[in-house]
Write a structure and sequence with these properties.
- The complex is a heterodimer.
- By secondary structure, chain A is of the alpha+beta class.
- The N terminus of chain A is likely disordered.
- The longest helix of chain A has about 70 residues.
- Among the domains of chain A are: about 80 residues; about 120 residues, OmpA-like domain (60s Ribosomal Protein L30, Chain: A), CATH 3.30.1330.
- Chain A has a 5-stranded mixed β-sheet with strand order 1-2-5-3-4.
- By secondary structure, chain B is mainly alpha-helical.
- Chain B has 13 helices and no strands.
- Helices cover about 65% and strands about 0% of the residues of chain B.
- The longest helix of chain B is centred in the last third of the chain and has 30 residues.
- Chain B starts with about 35 loop residues before the first helix and ends in an 8-residue tail after the last helix.
- Classes of the chains: A alpha+beta, B mainly alpha.
- Chains A and B meet through helix 1, helix 2 and helix 3 of A and helix 1, helix 5, helix 7, helix 8 and helix 9 of B.
């Protein structure tokens, strides 16, 4: 084994050669180092993105760090004692750029999915707006239907009241309207006169009450006579009788303009004028009740 | 082993001196030293260094898979050779284990396994896991065995101490680098503690020996580079264990940087040496400080560290190439695998 521990013994030529060799090797090493630095500069273009300062995590045994699921090889590293360190430390150490490319592709995928989902959610927002509009319409239609139903109920109620009133008055339904016949037993006109006896008020009060309850109705008062006497006198007598009923009803509170008077004379008998009873029946005033509109009666 | 007293630092079978006799010429396998695995350590360190550069820069280097393949191939060849030695010359293996100095180089096998597990950590985690388990178990076994010898061997003198003694003790510091990502955090802390405990102890003894006793012989001077490895690898492991760069990590890194600087100032002295297999001791520690620099760049965001690390890894690539060439020449000229 040669021992080169004494630097004095080699000849000067060998020393120079040795020094030259040393210089060459050092030069090569320096070139390699500088080459590496220059290579790094050109590879990164002078700009290097580094993760930056990472504070140390606590080392207590209770510490648990999440294992990233996006790195395929790492999912096979099942922790047997403790989970592996964080994504930052894993990615910073020893990660291959192939994995990084895979991660970048997955990120692009995730972005694409996010775009699709936000389109879909915009569509959903539209649908929700339309549903709201439809619901508002449905509510409005329901309200209208309810209003119509209550109006119909009102009308039905009025109709019921009306027919009850008609029945109370002993009315007949005719094409001209609802007919109430006040004959001599109710309105005892003495023959040839047009003065209402006082006890006619009871029957007339019913009529006045009806007219008060149904302000939409008008009354036509038609006076009749029997066939005795001349026609001209009967005509004016029948008119007078109708006017007397008119006056009585006005006295009972019915507005005059809601009533019309007509004298018919003996033109419309309802009984045989030959008998006294028949004549008594013909001497009458008929009241026709008509609603202002055509719906009821 | 009193015959060793006159040449205390002899690391046999590593000096390819041309004048050595051809004794044992036919059984070179018998003298195949475990220290050959230092080649795997160097190549694996280079591979991991380029993997780290890839990761930090986000740039893909085409030759990294080639480096991985080459390292694995070399390891397989050496492992097969050593296995053959174990089968064919078990006495030689026993002698190597029983040798108080050569035993220090046997943990290079365990460290090679641990380094390979780091190489494959992100490419084949299952393979990496099994490499790590085997390597860590072997390393622990070697550590216990060697420390046991230190405590009970009768004939050690200070002159026997050399940086190779760091290998069984501080190789433990390498375990967390792959152990933490694989999920074995508590076990990694165990190994890290062993290494960090023994590092200052051995460092003190080395300094004491170098200061007050004979300087290291030529053959072993390259092993001074091993001084860089414990703080550099310790820094990397500590950052893995704690997740960030704190006070202790910075102290470790800058201690490693100091040793690197010191040794580079000494470069002319190293360059005067002829080739020994121990020259491979240049490779792994430089890889360790380069990786630690890139790690510091990544964690602190300071680009200067990245330039330093990248420059060193480029330089190391040249050095490893030179070492491969020199080793091949020495193997061919039959200067290696010689008996004592």
């Amino acid at each position: 084994m040669s021992q080169d521990n004494q630097p004095n013994t080699p000849p000067t030529a060998g020393k120079r050669a040795g020094a030259a060799r040393t210089a060459v090797v050092l030069g090569v090493l320096a070139t390699l180092f500088g080459g590496g630095v220059a290579l790094l500069y050109t590879l990164t273009g002078g700009e290097i993105q580094l993760a930056g300062p990472v504070p140390p995590r606590p080392t207590a045994p209770a510490q648990a760090a999440p294992q990233p699921e996006t790195r395929a090889p790492a999912t096979e590293i099942a922790s047997q004692q403790r989970p592996a360190p964080t994504v930052a430390t894993q990615a910073a150490d020893f990660a291959s750029s192939a994995e990084l490319a895979g991660l970048a592709a997955q990120l692009a995928d995730a972005h694409a999915r996010i775009d699709v989902l936000s389109e879909q959610s915009a569509g959903f927002a539209e649908s929700i707006a339309r549903i709201d509009a439809l619901e508002a319409k449905v509510a409005a239609a329901k309200a209208a239907a309810d209003a119509a139903a209550s109006r119909a109920a009102d009308v039905a109620l009025r109709y019921t009241e009306l027919t009850a009133d008609y029945a109370r008055l002993g009315a007949h339904f005719t094409p001209q309207g609802v007919l109430i016949r006040l004959d001599e037993t109710a309105l005892r006109f003495p023959p040839g006169t047009a003065e209402l006896p006082a006890k006619a008020d009871a029957a007339l009060a019913e009529i006045a009450g009806f007219l008060a309850r149904h302000p939409g109705h008008r009354a036509l008062l038609r006076g009749h006579t029997d066939a005795s006497g001349n026609a001209h006198a009967n005509l004016s007598l029948s008119e007078q009788r109708a006017a007397a009923v008119h006056a009585a009803l006005v006295a009972l509170g019915v507005p005059g303009e809601r009533m019309d008077i007509e004298g018919v004379g003996a033109a419309e008998p309802i009984a045989d004028n030959a008998s006294s009873t028949g004549r008594g029946q013909n001497r009458r005033v008929e009241i026709l009740l008509r609603p202002a509109d055509d719906t009821a009666g | 082993m009193s015959t060793q007293a006159t040449t205390p630092d002899q690391i046999p079978a590593e000096s390819p001196t041309q004048s050595a006799p051809a004794a044992g010429h036919g059984s070179r396998l018998e003298h195949f030293p475990a220290s050959f695995f230092a080649m795997v350590m160097g190549l694996a360190g280079l591979t991991i260094g380029w993997e780290k550069a890839q990761a930090v820069l986000g740039i893909h280097f085409f030759f990294v898979p080639w480096l991985m393949g080459g390292t694995t191939l070399l390891f397989s060849v050496l492992a097969l050779l050593y296995l053959a030695k174990l089968v064919l010359h078990p006495a030689a293996v026993r002698a190597e284990i029983g040798h108080p100095v050569r035993i220090n180089f046997m943990p290079t096998m365990a460290i090679s396994l641990l380094l390979l597990s780091i190489v494959y950590l992100h490419w084949a985690p299952d393979v990496s896991r099994w490499l790590w388990i085997t390597g860590a178990t072997l390393q622990l076994g070697f550590t216990l065995f060697v420390v046991n010898i230190w405590m009970h061997h009768e004939h050690f003198q200070v002159l026997h101490m050399n940086p190779a003694w760091f290998i069984p003790a501080v190789g433990n510091v390498l375990v967390p680098v792959a152990g933490v990502p694989l999920g074995y955090e508590l076990v990694s802390w165990f190994f890290f503690s062993i290494g960090i405990l023994l590092w200052p102890v051995l460092l003190t003894i080395i300094f004491y020996r170098v200061l007050f006793h004979h300087p290291l012989p030529e053959r072993l001077m390259p092993t001074l580079f091993i001084l860089v490895a414990p703080p550099a690898v310790g820094c990397i492991a500590y950052v893995q264990l704690t997740g960030g760069v704190d006070v202790f990590a910075q102290i470790l890194y800058f201690a490693a940087l100091f040793f690197t600087l010191l040794l580079f100032i000494e470069a002319p002295r190293f360059l005067k040496l002829r080739f020994y297999l121990s020259w491979w001791a240049y490779s792994f520690p430089l890889a360790a400080i380069a990786i630690a620099s890139m790690l510091m760049a990544d964690r602190t965001g300071l680009v200067g560290f990245l330039y330093l690390g990248f420059g060193m890894i480029t330089m190391l690539s040249g050095i490893v190439l030179l070492l491969l060439v020199q080793t091949a020449r020495a193997v061919r000229s039959r200067g290696i695998c010689l008996p004592e």
